[in-house]
Amino acid sequence: MNNxxxxxxxxxxxxxxxxxxxxVVAVPLMNPIGFxxxxxxxxxxxxxxxxxxxxxxxAYVGAEVAATNAAELRPMMIAIVQLMYELxxxxxxxxxxxxxxSLARLxxxxxxxxxxxxxxxxxxxxxxxxxxxxxxxxxxxxxxxAFSDRDIGGLKLSEMPVMKGLEKASDLGYLAIMxxxxxxxxxxxxxxxxxxxxxxxxxxxxxxxxxxxxxNYQAGLTAGLIGGLNGAAQLEQLTNRPYKAIRSxxxxxxGHLAVIALLIIGNIGYxxxxxxxxxx
Length: 280
What we know:
alpha/beta
């Protein structure tokens, strides 16, 4: 290689770098590459735990989500509810983040409907409620009244077949809580786990919550743990439902490889140029 090539390698235009990174990230988002996924035991155990519940089990999904954590929690929620429906579990979706239930209707409902789930029979979305503490406390004795006997669209919960058998929180088989912070898994743990209503809580947390969620899981406060985009990708793979998490992990991995390659090329160019200048 001549000197000019080494100089170019040592000082690649930032615009070219941006273009390279954009292409590298966009390609796997459109066409997954299929990089190997290393499964964590906690995710394997969590999927087996969900599978251990019989058909007809009433499961609660905590839609504690917002647009800011969609990249991690959207694919996680979609894979969770699809697995629940496949196993014949009845799905009750609620949440105390302002946009949570509305986003659940946008994210999860289309996939359930496509799979053949019937709203009101197989699943229901409760809708946003402003006070988690008082509602969860009341739900310990009367679940339907705690949520004002209304779903997200104003329909009566008491008239829906999916609510049959759900009189109080202890009638829930297990919880799967999307957990970006507060309200989150800790909210339900305090309200229902500490008082003995529900013993099986699955923590579906963002990467930022993974350390604290991991501590709670190891302490036995939660029975399952799926963490971050990596956990979502593992869940998709285990349930054979590749969606955005696997594609995003491929993009992330390829992006990291591209950064490493560009750093190596830039450093080689820098030292080679410097060596040639000293030799003159």
